[in-house]
Design goal:
The complex is a heterodimer of chains A (341) and B (139).
Chain A lengths: L1 H40 L33 H5 L11 H8 L5 E8 L2 E12 L2 E12 L2 E2 L2 E9 L2 E9 L4 E9 L4 E11 L6 E10 L11 E6 L2 E6 L4 E9 L4 E3 L1 E5 L3 E5 L9 E9 L2 E9 L4 E4 L11 E10 L2 E10 L3
Antiparallel strand pairs in A: 1-18, 1-20, 2-3, 3-4, 3-7, 5-6, 5-8, 8-9, 10-11, 11-15, 12-13, 12-16, 14-15, 16-17, 19-20
Chain B lengths: L1 H28 L6 H18 L4 H7 L3 H11 L4 E8 L11 E2 L8 E9 L7 E10 L2
Antiparallel strand pairs in B: 1-2, 1-4, 3-4
Classes of the chains: A alpha+beta (341), B alpha+beta (139).
Amino acid sequence: MVILALSAIVGASKVTTPYLNGLSSRDDAERFQQLASYVLLSTGTPSNWGQSSGTFPSRLGLAKENSEQNYELDIDKVTRLNSRNIYSLIYSQIWDALGATDVAFQLEVRTLFEVSIRLASNSTRGDQTSYEFEITTKKSGMPISTELCGYVAVRNFVNKTASFTSSNGIGSFTIGIPNWISGAALFLVTARAKTNPQIVSFDIYSFGHNSQTPLPNGTFTSLSPLAYVLKASFISSGTEIMSASIFTFNYNFSLAEKAAGVQSKEYTIPCILDSSPMVMVLTGHNASTSFAEWVPYPQLPLQVGMDFSQSVAGSKIVTQSHIVTINQALYEVVTKWGGTV
Amino acid sequence: MFDRKGQIRIIEAFLAVGVIFSALLISFTFPASPDLAKQKSLAQVGMQALMKLDTNGTLANLVEGQDWTAIKESLDILLPIGVAFNLTVYDENRQQVNLQPIRNSNLLGHESVSVQYICATRNQVVQLFLLRLQLAWTT
């Protein structure tokens, strides 16, 4: 009798365990949803932790202080999640501030669609070289029709042009650069969806104008924007800055120097009312090598947290997507949660 | 006498075990309840997309101008890939305003959720519109 009763209990528990686990997983999904909403809707503690490089949050929240709309994030709080920024938080600080020590997570902030630039051709005529670029705008392969604004920057030379991508998501630019200058050049394209000016994206193409192909971004300087100040830390001695500029969809300005040290410089970033990412470009040289380096503000795209691509097969990962506003432009935040213990 | 009682107890026990297992088997033959968290998350994504589109009155302007293509293209960008949607716009009298469908694919055969959103024009004569967005995961 006892053996029968025990075997019945064991059998019943064996059969029901997967079902009960499934129920608890549903609770996990609900909980992860709440956690993501909390991170994106609350300002965190202290509420202005983003602006001060020496302040670390005791409670994580990315929302902008005194915002009038939901899911509006603080430009500096988001920027401090990017590990390339010298003022960034490390994963353990973010994890502690989240307060849920039994979960692993990943947070990704990116533009809502992608822009890609391809150099189609170049030709020299007289005293200038013409470059033809092909621009593609799409979201996961789906073409997006956009308005485009292109800037080319070489040393102190800046030129602005406009174009568009049609319904097939393809457009082009032809730009001319005078041959009396030479060095590392950048071609920056900001794109804005024709249907909604808040949906924006950008891409940057680096090339050599009458010179060899430039070294990768970040070779000469480490650029870290925070609280509307750009800090440029020189990686090697002998680095000279020739120009510092800021570009948005509608505007471009030279940056005013705020402070200068032996191995660094600081520039004031103007508060520009434009639904657009801001891209700062520094041109200069180190010995005979010229460079043009850049950083966007907010410093995107970024991915912080656990790398779930290395997860054990079959482990449950909950992915959520949110649309957020940063500096009047719309971005996508993707959160991944998993590994409950 | 005791042997008979014992035999009956054993039969009772077997019956009890049988009842438990048959109850479990029957419970597993019922279809699983929908994943409510996933559906709730989808509804939240849809509501957020409409809210963000309505920032600065863009959505109401597009509805007033009957620019259904622009609304469809905006939702294509704002909603995640793999989400099918169908948007219906009603006026204050519950009359359907959009005469052409605003959707990216057919929702038939997919478990869908629905969110409702009210938007208003920012003119001197305010017009109200009720937007009903149906969403479903296709992947």
